[in-house]
Structures are given as structure tokens and as C-alpha cells.
Amino acid sequence: MQKRTLDLAGWGLFVLSALGFIVASIGTFWAMLGSLLFLVACLVFIYGLYFGKEDS
């Protein structure tokens, strides 16, 4: 399995985890805010994985 594929699978699990935290935190402002920030951070890392500079 390629490193990039494995990285993407790992980040996919983090995104699923963030979505679970979001559902669990419905009705609690600070927990929801933290969960949303966690999801955004995961998406930023995934974006960097696909559109970041390649190592030479």
C-alpha cells in the first residue's frame, strides 16, 4: 500500500471521528466548537496532502 493512500485512510478515520464528536456534542456550545475546529483541521491536512508541494 502506498504511503499517500495510507495517510489518506488515516485522515479519513480522523474525519469520521470528528463527525462522531460533532453528533455527540449537539447542544453543548464548547464541545461543538472544539469538534468543528477538529474537523476543519483534519480537512486542512487532507488538502495539504493532495495539493501541497511534493517532496523532491
Distance from first to last alpha carbon:
20 Å
Poorly predicted tracts of residues: none
Mean pLDDT: 90
Query: Which H/E pattern describes the elements?
Result: HH
Provide a descriptive summary of the structure in words.
The chain has 56 residues and is mainly α. It is built from two helices and no strands. The protein has helices at 3-24, 29-51. The longest helix has 23 residues, at 29-51.
Structural key phrases:
0% strand; elongated
Task: State the gist of this model.
By secondary structure, the chain is mainly alpha-helical. The chain has helices at residues 3-24, 29-51.
Topology:
Blueprint (H helix, E strand, L loop, with lengths): L2 H22 L4 H23 L5
Helix pairs in contact: 1-2
